[in-house]
Design brief:
2 copies of one chain form a homodimer. Chain A is α/β, with parallel strands linked by helices. Chain A is built from 12 helices and 12 strands. Chain A is globular and about 60 Å long. The termini of chain A are far apart.
Chain lengths: ~350, ~350
Amino acid sequence: MRTDSIRRVVRSMRGYQPGEQPLRGDVIKLNTNENPYPPSPRVLKLLRSLDGSQLRLYPDPLGGRLCEAVARRHGCGSDEVVLGNGADDILAMCLRAFVERDGSVGYFEPSYSLYPVLAEIAEVEVRPVELGADFEWAMPEGYTASIFFMTNPNAPTGVLFPREQVREFCETFSGIVVIDQAYVEFAREDCVDLALELDNVIAVRTFSKAFSLAGIRLGYAVGPSELMRALIKVKDSYNVGRITQELGCAALEDVRYMEGNVERIRQTRARLGGELQRRGFRVWPSETNFLWVRPPEPGARRLYELLRDDGIYVRYFDARRTEDYLRISVGDDADMYALLGSLDRIMAGAGR
Amino acid sequence: MRTDSIRRVVRSMRGYQPGEQPLRGDVIKLNTNENPYPPSPRVLKLLRSLDGSQLRLYPDPLGGRLCEAVARRHGCGSDEVVLGNGADDILAMCLRAFVERDGSVGYFEPSYSLYPVLAEIAEVEVRPVELGADFEWAMPEGYTASIFFMTNPNAPTGVLFPREQVREFCETFSGIVVIDQAYVEFAREDCVDLALELDNVIAVRTFSKAFSLAGIRLGYAVGPSELMRALIKVKDSYNVGRITQELGCAALEDVRYMEGNVERIRQTRARLGGELQRRGFRVWPSETNFLWVRPPEPGARRLYELLRDDGIYVRYFDARRTEDYLRISVGDDADMYALLGSLDRIMAGAGR
């Protein structure tokens, strides 16, 4: 085979590993932080009334109407918004727009494991910053990079970095700060305003989590129009399809429905955290729709496997800083009840 | 503003310019080679019956069911198929997977104007190959590049390169040949079999043209499984959404409907070609859903502008080899009637 035509770095890399998407419908999926509740009734209604004959036409390349809706949400101009085929598309665009060949990519460790993969594909230097013992903010003095990807609230740890620390970092950092806010709707505070105030900050949002729309692939960037214009130059022309643009608009017309689901998930999160603590788990304070936990015996990896055998998928990251932990998405009450039941059976067995 | 954080090449580049997507609904759009007929009734029916609650879940990252349907269509294995967010996504992946920093990108000139833009973003050398005086095949002896993007049938010229010439080139070329078959359903012959036979050939297809689904963003690559695995490593994990995957499957269940539309478009293409020739246009033999024509007075640029004033959008490429030509998408009978009427009025005025 013609493997010598494949780039060396691509031959040797493993690629980003998304959480399993089991094709069986009977599993309880707590491994990719999907929302347990369906999208807004407005979205479902629009879906049933879409004019399919229009699908013969290309979408609006910039998604003007949706950009305007996003801009209204954040009180900015539509030239301060760029749409992506999911937030991952935006993250890849940022690297293409802002990192020269001899540039570098920064991110916390642990955080979203896609960042080093994007850097590897681009063959640019990585400058990971190790978080503290409890996964708290730990930025070295004088740290530099071309771009810094900051998941805030962080994943997989669920921790929200303090607003003033984030601001101070952005104000002094010499490169572009991309604040990846995939989970921000579940947090007690936001920092999208930094992207509208500072000239080197971009906020990235997704419809996948709080809006229950992981299936349509929609994310966006908010930030200085000059940086947005650079993203537009390096994006695929028609990166967001017609249906996705329309459903995104419908979702933004019903933000209250999303907020109601977020509130339910927060309440479930608090209850689940308590139940896990009572079972000997260490539970990190979460500002997201998942919990980052350190399980007791039989330990994270074994528990992950045993839950999986039981048809319950949680996320296990097999790496130095994360190998003793599980990331568990907050589902609905039935999911949580099943999870706790399964844990009780497993842990009773482990104790025998 | 922080423009110094934008890559130099991105600052200076213009970016790919897609054909205009006018927001007014009352124009006749013959500028982006969309299909004048709606998608299959099976697609429209499925669209109305989609289960919107499932949109809360991520799509299958590899789109297994759709890959299998594509594989059945081409008589290959599903490991010889990779899905893209439109064919453009596949083209970008090919560059990421197969072109090292010191590599090079080849393509015919004129052909799809995205290729040099992708190369510019990646800052790799371009090795364009100038087509002959009538836009026919003209490959220099001993030509090399890391990858060669070959639009076949070619755009914007509509010319199909002879099968044996393509095969001979692929067999001797040292790099990867990406045969961009966006328009192949409208042609008299195909060469997807080369991608299944040779170890350095990838065929790229789209649902945007023959299947009337430009709005859903769906394309795919067919080729050696080893090359497909490389593409998978460099693609966005969830690059194709749930609705797109489902509608793509429905479209492939009704290939005969697509073929019926293709036949109508071919017939309209032949009639339109004759009408334009009678009006003094030179018309290239087309194997696509558009015509490449060299208009008489008042010339291509002026005609483009005057048609546009009349609410009829055709495509004009303002570059050395293309400035005397127009690319006109084949629409339905009403579109063609309006186009000819407008041309007659304009040309009568130009003759006065």
